[in-house]
What we know:
Chain A is an alpha+beta fold. Chain A has helices at about 5-15, 30-40, 70-80, 125-130, 140-150, 170-185, and strands spanning about 25, 45-50, 60-65, 90-95, 100-110, 115-120, 130-135, 190-200, 200-205, 210.
Amino acid sequence: xxxLSEAGSKELLGAFGVPFPAEHVVTTADDAVAAAEALGGPxxxxxxxxxxxxxxxxxxxxLNLVGAEAVRDAAEALLAAARPEDGEVHLLVAPMLRATRxxxxxxxxxxxxxxxxxxxxxxxxxxxxxxxxxxxxxxxRVDAEEMLDDLATQKLLGEFRGEPAVxxxxxxxxLVGLSQAAVDRPDLVSADLNPLLIVDGRPVAVxxxxxxxxxx
Amino acid sequence: MTTTRPTPTPEQFRALxxxxxxxxxxxxxxxxxxxxxxxxxxxxxxxxGKVYATNRDGAEVLGVATVRExxxxxxxxxxxxxxxxxxxxxxxxxxxCAEKGITAAFIASAGYGEAGEEGRRAQDExxxxxxxxxxxxxxxxxxxxxxxxxxxxxxxxxxYPPAGRISVASQSGNLVSAFQNYAGQTGVGxxxxxxxxxxxxxxxxxxxxxxxxxxxxxxxxxxLEGVGAGEGRAVYERLRSVxxxxxxxxxxxxxxxxxxxxxASHTGSLASDDRVFDGMVRQxxxxxxxxxxxxxxxxxxxxxxPLPKGNRVAVVTTVGGWGVAAADTISxxxxxxxxxxxxxxxxxxxxLPPRWxxxxxxxxxxxxxxxxxxxxxxxVASHPEVDAVIYLGIGIQSNQAKLMREGPFHPDHGIxxxxxxxxxxxxxxxxxxxxxxxxxxxxxxxxxxxxxxSPDNPGVATLRNAGRLCHxxxxxxxxxxxxxxxxxxxxxxxxxx
Lengths: 216, 497
């Protein structure tokens, strides 16, 4: 089944209120440098394209780049790493966000119950921790609030290491937005927001992957 | 099973659970056969309607003059047929029953979907025939149906449970028996109980929908091993619709990979991600229990306690250790220990020496005198900052009294008098717990291991005789109360409370 590029995934889900960082899609190293300057501060540069689904595994994500030279080097290296089967590619330049807390959220089809909304605790231990909650699409705000309540790791949602408590309403917005996306786009097979960073208490999705049904 | 089948009507369900007269098809003279046992149980448990039976030879069974053919029976009188005849005989049997106006059939016979390809075909044909004849078809391969409002025990196994407000629908017949046994043990009784068997035509959600509008039912208790292919979404919608009207407690077999393999061979249920199933039941407002016995605890609590309006719990105890255990369990639930209000603390000070805990759990620390327990229970339950009470330590005095009564000195040395006093006290304490709950409209749960260890203890027996659940431990009471709170909150958040 076809996946959308990260930029395409973000465009689709952003229309449903999923918050993403301000980022630029460019095609040349020069434009990447200009974009980084416009954003200010450290940036992330990623290679994107409809056929590229597993950027991290292929080393196509360069984090915490400071200064024009670092951005240019990374951009050139990424463009050079593109393979013929990747098709049309682009560079995604985004601010480098830091967060001590990570959630994951998404949409998945269940063989018996249809499309579900998922919320979980993210990060490198996410799979081992397996602290996730599911609901069937469509969900109400109340359902979304109860998904937050279902997470076992409630301490993560309160004030944490000097950061404010998670803005639960903003997380609810994300979940309800995902649900609405599934309702409006019946061809949507899955969506992953991983990670959904908690920055100053508010959720920001720094990666997105949407999978659609193959067109007949 | 196709989705175009007619849904069973309330009239058909009434024929199953409140039949005017019952026919046992395939009554046997052999006391080891289902056809004998079913007739025996219907006759022995007090069913007031007329009971008919067919027997191959027309032999008298348990004093019932049987007929060889359904055609010989009166028309327009019998509502339910309990079928013990071999699968091959059943299509003709159903046709003959329909002629007599019978609208519900419980098929105990085996040899259907559980018995391979041929059995599956016979089952599909029987379902289609029943639909055509307007007969509700329960089973096949099921254990039976119990309905205490009708004093009906149409099942091929014991027990016949005490009457009450819990209604059971189960994909496992044996677990119907288990819930009925728990009902007998605790005194918290059953309204309807049905084993769905192969659930060929009527499945567990169908029964739950009937329970939702059944005035005899106060809470539904369901055992599921899974949902059929393509039915997931419909099951969700129906569970939710039932839960809006009635508390539903569900225990699911096949939670783990190992359990799912067992379920696949037991009821043919498909494996699913348990986390998705769990989210589905939460969204539907269904209370999911971890275990079979916990499911009964929760259902029995719904059946006998009002819903709390909030999650602030006061633990009133004469036994420190159980109070601590209760506090520990509360911390793992959505409940919380109510901070003890100053005016409540001051009011309790009036009745206890200063060594009481002066905090929640309210540990009386042995400072109680004759009237303290009823007074403190009343003060605590009546306080506006308390939503529910858990009372621990009932029965201790009577437990000592039992030792004295059975010892060599009774009734001399003043023992006779003190034994009577102790037993009166525990009776009073149980009555007080019931009274303050009724008066305040708040749940007041009582827990002691004596519920199991010494069921004749006057404190325990008083609760049981009043139809209340005496919880077998503080932590089990807390878990059950947490489910009452979860339901209350689910209803509140959706404007349904």
